[in-house]
Amino acid sequence: MPAAGTRSYAQAADFPLSRPAIEGVFIHGSNPRNLMARDRATAKEAALTAARSAARAASADASLRPDVSRFPADETYDPECTRCPRLAEFLTESHQKYPSYWCRPVPSFGAAAPRIVIIGLAPGMQGANRTGRPFTGDYAGILLYETLYALGLATQPTSVSYDDPLKLEHTRIINAVKCVPPENKPTPDEIRRCNGFLQAELAKLKSARVYVALGLVAHEAILKALGRKRSEYKFGHAAEFRLDETRHLIDSYHCSRYNTNTRRLTPEMFEAVLSRARTLSEL
Fold first, then answer.
1. Using an 8 Å Cβ cutoff, are 162 and 137 in contact?
2. Could you say which architecture CATH assigns to the domain 12-19+59-280?
3. DSSP readout, 202-260?
4. What are the pLDDT digits (tens) for 5-16?
């Protein structure tokens, strides 16, 4: 049984199938329709792999580096932040290696007054650190943006770059750590230092009704930013917590390639969480 104050929504059968599920996208099984869907998912990964290879091949051209002027500094974001010496040094090294990449702290993306706020971990080297947008250019973004599109929370099912036409509806994506960390592993001190930006941004987002934590690090970062005790909110996939009269926290395993390939997180499980978030946000 779920702990007091939580509610589990891990069973996809509790929710109607969305457009990708109906079309078979990302649904894995043995029937011909699902095998075709698996082939489509594999094709998307192959296309992304090719795009990343092309970007690396062109990475010496500094003129291709995304324009930072669209993202001015404020209490929620600083494109020139050097609070974490290890991360700042790694960004400098990364920019020297890949002059065309973003190689700065990655800004949040989405609606200015969201009902749903999704919090991830940190940028990936060949993903957001390259493109300048969360979950863009990495494999985790394939499932994330497909699912948001299926639920009517995104205007297109793919995210390519920080300046493509994609818009998020009533939804915003924030990373707990804004800079790419070596080996994709931020230290506890780096997570703590960056939490000030998250705290400031969540305080500004008065419209938010649901926070979705992608993984344990994001879960704990949200609690710290909101001034809540970790001991009162145990992380678990599809665990749901009522924070106050208007706000909820829902957990999900991170939509990383590792989690999806090992089936720790299935597309159905992930869609169920985001569908529940949509319901709680009263959209």
1. no
2. 3-Layer(aba) Sandwich (3.40)
3. HHH-TT--EEEEESHHHHHHHHHHHT--GGGS---TT-EEE-SSS-EEEEE----HHHH
4. 443 323 222 223
pLDDT reading at 237 higher than 90: yes
Asked if pLDDT for residue 32 goes beyond 70, the answer is: no
Query: What pLDDT, in 10s, does the model give residues 77-130?
Result: 999 999 999 999 999 999 999 999 999 999 999 999 999 999 999 999 999 999
Contact 87, 78 (CB under 8 A): no
* Domain spans, the chain: 12-19+59-280
* Stretch (H or E) spanning 118: strand 116-120
- The three-state secondary structure class of 276 is helix
Decide the pairing of beta strands 248-252 and 240-242: antiparallel
According to DSSP, the residues that pair with 252 across neighbouring strands are 214
Spell out the residues 6+ positions from residue 85 whose beta carbon is closer than 8 angstroms to its own: none
Q: How far apart are CA 156 and CA 113, in angstroms?
A: 20
Report pTM. Answer: 0.85
Instruction: Give the angle 268-4-218 at the CA atoms, nearest 5°.
Output: 55
Provide the percentage of residues in the chain whose pLDDT is more than 90. Answer: 80
Whether the CB-CB separation of 50 and 137 falls below 8 Å is answered with no
For 216, list phi and psi in degrees, rounded to 5: -65, -40
**Two structure tokens written together for 42:** 């594999």
- Greatest mean pLDDT range, 28-42, 49-63, 252-266: 252-266
Own/partner contacts of 224-229, CB < 8 Å, gap of 24 or more, are 224/192, 224/195, 224/199, 225/195, 225/198, 225/199, 226/199, 226/202
CA-to-CA dists, residue 186 to 23, 30, 144, angstroms: 38, 39, 22
CA–CA separation, 185 and 121 (whole Å): 9
